[in-house]
Amino acid sequence: MKNKVPSPDRCIRGAQPTARSRMVARIFTMFVVMIATSANAQYFDDAHAVEIQAFERKDDTTFTLTVRPSSKHKITGHSYFDSCSAVTVHGEFRRLRVVTSLEPYVLRISRESHVKSVDALEFSFHTGREIYFGPWGIGLVPIDKRNPCEVKSRALTTQVQGDLITVHSYHDAT
Question: What is the value of pTM for the model shown?
Answer without folding.
Answer: 0.67
